[in-house]
C-alpha cells in the first residue's frame, strides 16, 4: 500500500532554501506533498532548488509547478514582511509550515571579534528568525489557520564552540525565542520547535579546517558527520501532524555529539 503523503495540503516557506540544509528540507517537504515557497538571499540558488523539486524521486510528491522561488534578505524587516505578502499573493494563503534555515558564520575568537561580525551574525541568525516568525505568525493568526514553525538552531547554542561567540549566542537566542513563541501561539493552534544540528556536511562546514572536522568526527558516537537529509527527516516530522502534540521542543540531530 502506498504511504500517504503527510503534507499533502501544506504550503511550506523555507528560508535559506538555496543551499545545504534548506535545500534538503525543501526537497523532503515537496516529496511529502507540500507546495514549497523556497526563499534565499541568493535568488538564483532558490530558483535552482525549485528546479530540483520536480526531479527524479519526487513523482509521488507535489507536482513540479506547485513550487515557487523568492529572493529576500531575512535580516531586513521590510524584506521579511514583503516576502510573506508575496508568498500569500502567489499561493492565495499563508504558509502553514515555516522552516527558517537561513544562517551565516563569521568565526573569530572573542579577543579579536569585530562588532560588525557580531552584528551581522545576530542580524541574520536571530533577528532574521524573529522577523520571519513574526510575519508568518501574524498571517496565520489573522486568517485563523493552524501551523508549524521550525527554527534551525544548533547544538552550539547549547554547548558553545571555540571561535563562535556570535554564532553560539545567536543559536541560543533561537532556542529561547522558540520556547516563547510556543507558549504564546499554542492557543492559536500554531506549534513552534527548534532543531539543533551537530556537524552536517554542507557548504557551511566546508569552511571548517579539515583537522578540526577530523577532531570533531572522532567525538561523534555515530562516527561521521550528518547529511542535510538527516536534518530534513526531522523537520518533515515536526512539520507534520505526526508531531501534533510537540511544541517548544529542541530536537538534537547530532549523531550523539554532546549528548
Ligand atoms: N552545517 C552545519 O553543520 C550546521 C550545524 C548546525 C546548524 N546549522 C544551521 O543550519 C542552517 C543552514 O545551514 P547550512 O549548513 O545549510 O548552510 P549553507 O551556507 O549551506 O546555507 C545557508 C543558506 O542561507 C542563505 N542565507 C544567508 N544569509 C541569508 C539572508 N540574510 N537571507 C536569506 N538567506 C540567507 C545562504 O544564501 C545559503 O543559501 C543555518 O542556520 C546554520 O546555522 C548548520
UniProtKB/TrEMBL annotation:
Species the sequence originates in: Myotis lucifugus
Claim: NAD is one of the keywords in the record: yes
Name recorded for this polypeptide: (3R)-3-hydroxyacyl-CoA dehydrogenase
Family: Belongs to the short-chain dehydrogenases/reductases (SDR) family.
Subcellular location(s) per record: Mitochondrion matrix
Gene Ontology MF terms: (3R)-3-hydroxyacyl-CoA dehydrogenase (NAD+) activity; estradiol 17-beta-dehydrogenase [NAD(P)+] activity; NADH binding; quinone binding; testosterone dehydrogenase (NAD+) activity
E.C. no: 1.1.1.239, 1.1.1.62, 1.1.1.n12
A Gene Ontology term for the protein's cellular component: mitochondrial envelope
Keywords tagged on the record: Fatty acid biosynthesis, Fatty acid metabolism, Lipid biosynthesis, Lipid metabolism, Mitochondrion, NAD, Oxidoreductase, Phosphoprotein, Steroid biosynthesis
Catalytic activities: 17beta-hydroxy-5alpha-androstan-3-one + NAD(+) = 5alpha-androstan-3,17-dione + NADH + H(+); testosterone + NAD(+) = androst-4-ene-3,17-dione + NADH + H(+); a (3R)-3-hydroxyacyl-CoA + NAD(+) = a 3-oxoacyl-CoA + NADH + H(+); 17beta-estradiol + NAD(+) = estrone + NADH + H(+)
Pathway named in the protein's UniProt entry: Lipid metabolism; fatty acid biosynthesis; Steroid biosynthesis; estrogen biosynthesis; Lipid metabolism; mitochondrial fatty acid beta-oxidation
Amino acid at each position: 500500500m502506498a504511504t500517504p503523503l503527510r503534507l499533502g495540503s501544506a504550503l511550506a516557506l523555507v528560508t535559506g532554501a538555496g543551499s545545504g540544509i534548506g535545500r534538503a528540507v525543501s526537497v523532503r517537504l515537496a516529496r511529502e506533498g507540500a507546495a514549497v515557497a523556497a526563499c534565499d538571499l541568493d535568488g538564483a540558488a532558490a530558483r535552482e532548488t525549485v528546479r530540483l523539486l520536480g526531479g527524479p524521486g519526487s513523482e509521488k510528491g507535489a507536482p513540479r509547478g506547485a513550487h515557487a522561488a523568492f529572493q529576500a534578505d531575512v535580516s531586513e524587516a521590510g524584506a521579511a514582511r514583503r516576502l510573506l505578502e508575496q508568498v500569500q499573493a502567489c499561493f492565495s494563503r499563508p504558509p502553514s509550515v515555516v522552516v527558517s534555515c537561513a544562517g551565516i558564520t563569521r568565526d573569530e575568537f572573542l579577543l579579536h571579534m569585530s562588532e560588525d561580525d557580531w552584528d551581522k551574525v545576530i542580524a541574520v541568525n536571530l533577528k532574521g528568525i524573529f522577523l520571519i516568525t513574526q510575519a508568518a505568525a501574524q498571517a496565520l493568526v489573522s486568517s485563523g489557520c493552524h501551523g508549524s514553525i521550525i527554527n534551525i538552531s544548533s547544538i552550539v547554542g547549547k554547548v558553545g564552540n571555540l571561535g563562535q561567540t556570535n554564532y553560539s549566542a545567536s543559536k541560543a537566542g533561537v532556542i529561547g525565542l522558540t520556547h516563547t513563541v510556543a507558549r504564546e501561539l499554542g492557543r492559536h493552534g500554531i506549534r513552534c520547535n527548534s532543531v539543533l544540528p551537530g556537524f552536517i556536511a554542507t557548504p557551511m562546514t566546508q569552511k571548517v579546517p579539515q583537522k578540526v572536522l577530523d577532531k570533531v568526527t572522532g567525538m561523534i558516537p555515530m562516527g561521521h558527520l550528518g547529511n542535510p537529509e538527516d536534518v530534513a527527516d526531522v523537520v518533515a516530522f515536526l512539520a507534520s501532524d505526526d508531531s501534533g502534540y510537540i511544541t517548544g521542543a529542541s530536537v538534537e540531530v547530532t549523531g550523539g555529539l554532546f549528548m
